[in-house]
Design a protein that fits this description.
Number of helices: 12
Shape: elongated
Distance between the termini: 42 Å
Strand order of the largest sheet: 6-10-11-18-17-16-13-12
Number of strands: 18
Strand content: 25-35%
Order of helices and strands: HEEEEEHHHEEEEHEEHHEHHEEEEEHHEH
Oligomer: single chain
Length: about 450
Amino acid sequence: MDYFTGVRQKRALEISELLKQAKTGQRVKVNGAVHTIRDMGTVAFVILRKREGLLQGVYEEGVADFRLKDIREAAAVEIEGVLVENEKAPNGIELRMEKVRILSEPTDEMLPLAIGKWKLNTSLEAKLNYRSIALRNLRERAKFRIQEGLVRSFRDFLYGQGFTEIHTPKIGAKGAEGGANIFKLDYFHRPAVLAQSPQFYKQMMVGVFDRVFETAPVFRAEKHNTKRHLNEYTSLDFEMGYIDGFEDIMAMETGYLQYAMEMLERDYENELRLLKITLPDVTRIPAVKFSEIKELVSRKYGHQMRNPFDLEPEEESLISRYAKEEWGSDFIFVTHYPSKKRPFYAMDDPEDTRYTLSFDLLFRGMEITTGGQRIHDYRMLTKKLEARGMTEEGMEQYLDTFRHGMPPHGGLGIGLERLTMKLVGEDNVRETTLFPRDLSRLEP
């Protein structure tokens, strides 16, 4: 009979434990993957890759009780040795190796990618084909540590603001956004779709918890093959009730971004330094109406705005340039989008119903967020459905929620991969997607 009383204390130490607990000259045990081996003759440097970074091992003939050829790159090993200080080594420490235990070995002679190099000098296609190998490169891995920080801070910040985390279905009867960009599937001989967003469920839960959020995948059957589109991406969603106006939503997102940048600066210093990231200033974010910013940009840059109801990628880039030059901001809220480009549940501006109380947040030339105030009155909601020629089929439970009373509310969705992409300075959203799904890719 065995009992488990909690997390077991491991004898093998992590890098942070070596730095805090171990002393120079102490015999310690560590484990990790052999990242690279630099053979200098009688001395060799065996670099281990661990979850916290790199640890340098020093192999010397006559000191270690094993042969250097006994270990190979990509092998998982457990090493015992003496800890010493070395300011030139990663984290200022290294391990004089004495014993090794091979935990597993690769079957191939060589890795398909040179992950030990500072930067992977290969195509995006190759990186995606060998994704799990490419991500062993420290710079590639660091992007997703930054992404972790964005999700972690989203959760932490919203918990602190009284939000409840929810988990909604990804298979439904009808898409929340409408349109043709829906993945359809057979659900036990009934038609169903993959969720374009958790929008209906978020709104329904505002009537339960007042403030809710979710981090989950969403699906868009868009036949785009661009650097900014994915067919499956992660959306950071929240919805909040009892708002005074859609400005409350923009203020909450600004608060999140401030919290996220503080967390990244505090807890992800190594990744920021590795990727040479300069965090944006989010002290204040300008908000300008859709029609006004179009006119300002057109006048300043001589750009002819072709689409009066939406923003094209080139226009998003020019608007961000304008925000940076005029207000010193990497972010800009573009508000009051035309009603015909927003879903039926978007609240129309009572002062001009051609526009909505909604917004996009642009970051360094790209839209990363869409949000706004929702219609909370049942009669107004069904009237707008009717005006658009839409049926209530598949939305009965959603609409019933409004028949029984709902508070003024609104929310948003942030594209996690796009936010990460712009923050780390990549120009293709697949670079910041673990396993991208697009028109041509279903594997790995």
